């Protein structure tokens, strides 16, 4: 298929960006979206132009590095996938595809389609861990039985890949789904109880400090999340937060 | 320099304990004055950085990704081994040790492997304490699954995302230390050289990948945990950015590189579909617990399937060749990876491949749906269930176990694997070879350590499934933090290492010169052009099976590609900005050297062992006819190569392998 691409180009964080049109031809429907971008970049390199910078790494939907906003949707039109798992069979010959970086005040653009997601790092540093020593002098793993249900739910929350699609999809640029997933993973496990009060307070405080917006329950984040993280995690975080504030 | 593995004396069971009891320690007050650099933040680097910081050292950690959590360990699916014997099926430290040495085709160092097995149980305790949500059974206890090459269930897992969960555990431990200021994290930074002062590794030169700035970082020791070099094949299951640069740079500065030819070609990957393909995707080996591998028995059926006249589900049981079950009745579909991969290649080379490229075999779950379905019907007291009901119940169980893998397959291939068998083909996945290290995990450069996949030590010539995660975390959490203390105890009075010295000047100049060369070369061909060309030579001549003629050609061809690369590579953009093409150029330049050493090593090793199958060395008759033939008399050694300029001139040093606790046998899975 032949396609027209409208891509955001921006030299660096300080430069002003703009949309630029490109054409690609003979794109196979079996290609992944990023392989289509590789074709474009090879074309640009061969004609002496600078290729489009975009984040990507594992190309199997787990590292959370890729981050494009395609035709107005984070990770593009398919559901339950990251951009690297999006395939060209989702598009038609002759289509014009708009490709932008994730947009949010807390995710400044570094270059072209690459954004800075360090805000997520700082939120996790604020409490996204259990304070055990890594020396291995812990109790036997089976000495804390955990119900299968709780373990499975914690696992569902823990599958978050930290890509930021939730923030990019939210009209308020809220990070509640991401933080909710992190808080929930520990809230659901007995190991996480000891520090539960401080954890939720500190992570939420950091989230606010980073300039993410509030949640107004539109649910766009859940729809666009490549890992299907549920809104229940936001509700659970709100409960945890409320109970933490009441406990002082 | 003679290789000294520094394996402690004493019986294998006591070596590690005795060693820990007698090493020098650094007291907590002094650790504050010692800096350690950790390059790479996967399971090995991440767990090492967290533990060293927790012990009190000042750690500087480097990742080329925008977060430590994105290192490629995250993509490991199936699980992590540990000799817990929770299933009561006869597992023990010795048995895990034995399986790993045997699985590695008797080419690993016994003492290292025993230590790995010994600390394995502790890893699970550690990870559970960190909140890693491992799969559990209905009683609330940890669940296990079985992996290739073993007869017990010792693999712990978190759905098909075990690597992700373990890495997030290590990452959370890092975050705790970053928050305390004990780890200084350098995201989007790439190490481009190691700095050696008075014979010791004392720092690195790194490039800030956002600004292009070249930075100097000093430390009392440098730890490289930068992963494997599978991308030397261009197509592999590695991440796009996975590279050998850090490992190769230390090799060029004096670290010997061991067994480069030991590559793992993983049997269950999604087959390639076209020339544009940028990477291959793995389907976890755990699928072989429940999937059966087959091709049609008759060539007419193969043709009918390729032309779309027949579907795989049209073939009856007698029309199918379950070749692994036929050839290896004892282990069946759970033979080790090297054996499974070669068997798939054998069938496809004979013309039985089931897709248009002729490079695919089926992985079929029909009998698992049936088996689980019947079991569930019994559990739920459903009498006389219909076939549909059985299928439905069975599918639900398979979905719970491998749902994300089935979804991934469907997204890529656009076929529903619950309805039709998956197609799979072997792909490059892991490299057992790597930087040579002694028992302390120190390279031949004093103060320079190498851990995880980047080193060579624990898997011999073939790695068993679910052992990579085990080794990465064992090295980082439990081994290196002890061994590095012994070395650093001499540095308590050294003080901060200055970076305004001639050693740093020289290293930085070398790095800058190379970068400037690339951006000013103005050649006519892209970096990928050369990388793909290298990959093709590697796959065709140093892939699943190798022969002397092909390897000699490969060496010459790689050298020619390298020369053309340095003349004609084109790198757009400038040095002082984010420039992904420039990053790739540096990595491919290193692969173009490593590839040639790889072929040289494979040529030298005139035996078949593990992932290295030399066509000249196969069993000619008897029950093992056609199987790999190892030569313990001449090749029971680690091949450690010393850099001497051109890869062809590398000098071989041998570390003879002694097997005192395990008898060397032919590795039979029949």
Structure, briefly:
Chain B: Residues 35-469 form the FAD-dependent oxidoreductase 2 FAD-binding domain. The complex is a heterodimer of chains A (248) and B (670). Chain A has 248 residues and is of the alpha+beta class.
What does this entry look like structurally?
The complex is a heterodimer of chains A (248) and B (670). Chain A is 34% helix and 12% strand. Chain A has 248 residues and is α+β, with helices and mostly antiparallel strands. Chain A has two domains: 3-111, Beta-grasp domain (Ubiquitin-like (UB roll), Roll), CATH 3.10.20; 117-134 and 142-247, Alpha-helical ferredoxin (Fumarate Reductase Iron-sulfur Protein, Chain B, domain 2), CATH 1.10.1060. Chain A has a five-stranded mixed sheet with strand order 2-1-5-3-4. Chain A has a two-stranded antiparallel sheet with strand order 6-7. In chain A, a hairpin with an 8-residue loop joins strand 1 (3-9) and strand 2. The longest helix of chain A is centred in the last third of the chain and has 16 residues, at 232-247. In chain A, 51% of the residues are buried. The mean pLDDT of chain A is 96. By secondary structure, chain B is α+β, with helices and mostly antiparallel strands. Among the domains of chain B are: 269-428, no CATH class; 502-656, Up-down Bundle (Methane Monooxygenase Hydroxylase, Chain G, domain 1), CATH 1.20.58.100. Chain B is 38% helix and 14% strand. Chain B contains 18 helices and 19 strands. In chain B, the strands form five sheets. Chain B has a five-stranded parallel sheet, with helices on both faces. Chain B has a five-stranded antiparallel sheet with strand order 11-15-14-12-13. The mean pLDDT of chain B is 95. At the A-B interface, helix 1, helix 2 and helix 3 of A face helix 3, helix 5, helix 6, helix 12 and helix 13 of B.
């Amino acid at each position: 298929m032949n396609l027209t691409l409208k891509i955001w180009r921006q030299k660096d964080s300080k430069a002003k960006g703009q949309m630029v049109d490109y054409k690609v031809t003979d794109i196979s429907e079996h290609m992944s979206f990023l392989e289509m971008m590789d074709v474009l970049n090879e074309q640009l390199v061969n004609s002496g132009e600078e290729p489009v910078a975009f984040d990507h790494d594992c190309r199997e939907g787990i590292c959370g590095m890729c981050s494009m906003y395609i035709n107005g949707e984070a990770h593009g039109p398919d559901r339950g996938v990251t951009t690297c798992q999006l395939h060209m069979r989702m598009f038609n010959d002759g289509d014009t595809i708009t490709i932008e970086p994730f947009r949010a005040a807390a995710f400044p653009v570094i270059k072209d389609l690459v954004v800075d997601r360090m805000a997520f790092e700082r939120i996790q540093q604020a409490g996204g861990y259990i304070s055990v020593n890594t020396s291995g002098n812990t109790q036997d793993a089976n000495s804390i039985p955990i119900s299968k249900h709780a373990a499975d739910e914690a696992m569902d929350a823990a599958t978050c890949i930290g890509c930021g699609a939730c923030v990019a999809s939210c009209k308020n640029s809220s990070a509640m789904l991401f933080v909710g997933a992190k808080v929930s993973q520990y809230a659901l496990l007995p190991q996480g109880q000891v520090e539960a009060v401080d954890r939720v307070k500190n992570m939420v405080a950091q989230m606010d400090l980073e300039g993410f917006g509030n949640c107004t329950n539109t649910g766009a984040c859940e729809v666009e999340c490549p890992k299907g993280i549920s809104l229940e995690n936001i509700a659970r975080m709100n409960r945890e937060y409320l109970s933490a504030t009441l406990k002082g | 320099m003679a290789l000294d593995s520094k394996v402690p004396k004493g019986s294998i069971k006591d070596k590690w304990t005795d060693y820990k009891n007698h090493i020098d320690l650094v007291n907590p007050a002094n650790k504050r004055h010692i800096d350690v650099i950790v390059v790479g933040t996967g399971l090995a680097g991440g767990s090492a950085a967290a533990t060293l910081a927790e012990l009190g050292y000042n750690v500087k950690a480097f990742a080329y990704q925008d977060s430590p959590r994105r290192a490629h360990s995250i993509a490991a699916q199936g699980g992590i081994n540990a000799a817990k014997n929770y299933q009561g099926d006869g597992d023990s430290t010795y048995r895990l040790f034995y399986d790993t040495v045997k699985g590695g085709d008797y080419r690993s160092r016994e003492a290292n492997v025993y230590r790995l097995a010994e600390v394995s149980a502790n890893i699970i305790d550690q990870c559970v304490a960190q909140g890693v949500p491992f799969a559990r059974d209905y009683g609330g206890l940890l669940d296990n699954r079985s992996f290739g090459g073993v007869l017990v269930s010792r693999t712990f897992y978190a759905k098909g995302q075990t690597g992700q969960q373990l890495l997030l555990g290590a990452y959370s431990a890092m975050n705790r230390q970053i928050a305390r200021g004990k780890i200084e994290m350098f995201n989007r930074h790439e190490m481009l050289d190691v700095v050696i002062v008075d014979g010791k590794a004392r720092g690195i030169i790194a490039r800030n990948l956002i600004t292009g700035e070249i930075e100097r970082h000093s430390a009392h020791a440098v730890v490289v945990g930068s992963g494997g070099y599978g991308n030397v094949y261009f197509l592999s299951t590695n991440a796009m950015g996975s590279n050998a640069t850090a490992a190769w740079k230390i090799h060029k500065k004096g670290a010997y590189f061991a067994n480069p030819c030991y590559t793992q070609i993983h049997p269950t990957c999604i087959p390639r579909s076209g020339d544009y393909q940028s990477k291959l995707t793995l389907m976890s080996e755990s699928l072989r617990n429940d999937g059966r591998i087959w091709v049609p028995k008759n060539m007419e059926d193969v043709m009918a399937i390729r032309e779309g006249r027949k579907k795989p589900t049209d073939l009856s049981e007698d029309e199918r060749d379950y070749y692994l079950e036929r050839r290896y009745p004892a282990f069946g579909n759970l033979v080790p990876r090297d054996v499974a991969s070669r068997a798939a290649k054998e069938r496809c080379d004979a013309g039985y491949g089931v897709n248009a490229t002729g490079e695919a075999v089926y992985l079929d779950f029909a009998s698992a749906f049936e088996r689980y379905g019947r079991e569930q019907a019994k559990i739920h007291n459903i009498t006389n269930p219909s076939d549909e009901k059985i299928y439905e119940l069975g599918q639900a169980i398979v979905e719970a176990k491998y749902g994300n893998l089935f979804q991934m397959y469907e997204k890529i291939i656009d076929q529903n694997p619950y309805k039709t068998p998956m197609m799979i083909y072997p792909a490059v996945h892991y490299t057992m070879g790597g930087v040579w290290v002694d028992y302390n995990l120190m390279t031949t450069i004093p103060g320079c350590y190498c851990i995880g996949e980047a080193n060579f030590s624990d898997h011999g010539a073939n790695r068993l499934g679910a052992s990579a995660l085990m080794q990465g975390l064992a090295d980082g959490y439990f081994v290196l933090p002890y061994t590095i203390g012994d070395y650093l105890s001499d540095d308590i009075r050294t003080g901060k290492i200055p970076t305004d010295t001639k050693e740093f000047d020289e290293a930085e100049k070398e790095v800058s010169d190379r970068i400037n060369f690339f951006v000013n070369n103005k050649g006519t061909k892209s970096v990928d052009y050369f990388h793909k060309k290298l990959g093709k030579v590697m796959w065709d001549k140093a892939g699943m099976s190798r022969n002397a003629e092909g390897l000699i050609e490969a060496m010459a061809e790689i050298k020619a590609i390298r020369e053309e690369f340095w003349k004609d590579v084109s790198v757009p953009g400038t040095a002082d900005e984010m420039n992904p093409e420039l990053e790739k150029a540096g990595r491919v330049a290193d692969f173009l050297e490593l590839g040639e050493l790889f072929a040289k090593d494979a040529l030298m090793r005139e035996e078949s062992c593990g992932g290295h199958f030399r066509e000249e060395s196969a069993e000619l008759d008897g029950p093992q006819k056609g199987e790999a033939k190892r030569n313990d008399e001449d090749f029971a050694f680690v091949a450690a190569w010393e850099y001497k300029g051109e890869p062809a001139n590398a000098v071989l040093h041998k570390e003879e392998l002694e097997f005192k606790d395990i008898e060397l046998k032919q590795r039979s899975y029949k």
